[in-house]
Design brief:
Layout (H helix, E strand, L loop, with lengths): L1 H35 L9 H16 L6 H19 L5 H7 L1 H24 L4 H14 L1 H11 L3 H28 L4 H11 L3 H9 L3 H14 L3 H17 L13 H15 L4 H24 L3 H5 L4 H24 L1
Subcellular location: Cell membrane
Family: Belongs to the UPF0324 family.
Main location: membrane
Length: 341
């Protein structure tokens, strides 16, 4: 009898050990969502707010020892689960609506931006992990790409926090400027929407900037952005491979690498499921809300684990690097659209 009860007792003990940290991250995430509804913070994502609140909590109160196990789980496992569920947002039907020329523009923009970030991080003397985080966030989907890439890059907590802040600032400024530039450049709704979807960072920023110039522009921008999210899986896999090669000392010291992390494979599976199964809108909406909350919990945990002194020590170079990436992706994607669309 005692032997049979032991696994249950162990599970209960693990759950009790995790609860304080999970509860702390959930409270911070809920607070971030509440604050994001304030009018003057409507352009700031709950993910970034969760990081800031987590950093503030650590700076003021430290990290309670009792919360550490749950914080670790939030930072690692909940983050991966959120990335998996993110795959349900993209379907093959959305890809088909874009057309071959638009798909080529999106693919070329992602690849060129990642390559540019890799090259420029050396010239700007930005540490390679942080450079790749900023490149992923700019090229693909902002915070989601940064947190997904951070797992395979074994990035430091302060790198993730800095990357989120830099990409959010650049994307928010772009969100305001794009409608103005679209009018000045006399872009038609389709071209403008494609430009927004191909180059702005966060989905929310794309929706806001796209619909500023009408429903056709908004719909095109949103679909283009969601299709761009598909680059998340191959990008994370490649970055993970490059990171492990770098850590092992290069190609002359081969290492056993996990080309496709389980959560990236799960993301791809969700894309397929969402494409072949007609899930009801209410379920997809609920899953999207869950993804956003899990992401906020994970980022709250990252904030709690972030040393504010090390974060400040990064200086202005990565922020300027992020601005350079934002300018590059905007100019490069617009040039392709004007030439081929």
């Amino acid at each position: 009898m005692t032997t049979k009860a032991q696994p249950h007792l162990q599970n209960a003990g693990v759950l009790r050990e995790m609860t304080p940290g999970l509860f702390l991250c959930a409270v911070i995430a809920a607070t971030a969502f509440s604050i994001s509804h304030l009018r003057f913070l409507s352009a700031v994502s709950p993910a970034l707010l969760a990081v800031v609140l987590g950093i503030a909590f650590r700076a003021l109160l430290g990290e309670p020892a009792i919360a550490q196990p749950g914080v670790r789980i939030s930072m690692r496992q909940l983050l991966r689960i959120a990335v998996v569920l993110l795959g349900l947002r993209v379907t093959f039907a959305q890809i088909q609506t874009m057309g071959l020329s638009a798909l080529m523009v999106l693919a070329a923009t992602v690849v060129a931006t990642l390559a540019f970030s890799f090259w420029m991080s050396k010239l700007c003397r930005v540490e390679w992990r942080l450079g790749m985080l900023l490149g992923s966030g700019t090229a693909i989907c902002g915070a989601s790409a940064i947190v997904a890439a951070s797992s395979t890059l074994t990035a430091r907590h302060e790198d993730i926090a800095y990357g989120l802040a830099a990409v959010t600032i650049a994307g928010s400024l772009s969100m305001v400027l794009y409608p103005i530039l679209g009018i000045l450049l006399e872009l038609d709704p389709h071209r403008y929407g494609l430009w927004v979807g191909a180059s702005l960072h966060e989905v929310a920023q794309v929706v806001v900037a796209g619909y500023q110039l009408g429903p056709e522009a908004g719909e095109t921008a949103t679909v283009a952005k969601l299709v761009r999210v598909l680059a998340l899986a191959p990008t994370v896999a490649v970055l993970g491979y490059l990171a492990q090669r770098r850590l092992r000392g290069g190609p002359d010291q081969p290492a056993r690498v996990q080309l496709i992390p389980w959560f990236v494979a799960g993301f791809a599976v969700m894309v397929v499921l969402g494409s072949v199964i007609a899930f009801p809108d209410w379920l997809l909406s609920g899953i999207q809300s869950l993804v956003s909350f899990l992401m906020a919990m994970a980022l709250a945990a990252i904030g709690i684990e972030t040393d504010l002194g090390r974060l400040a020590g990064k200086g202005m170079a990565p922020l300027l690097f992020s601005a350079l990436l934002t300018i590059f992706i905007a100019v490069f994607s617009l040039a392709l659209i004007l030439l081929f669309i």
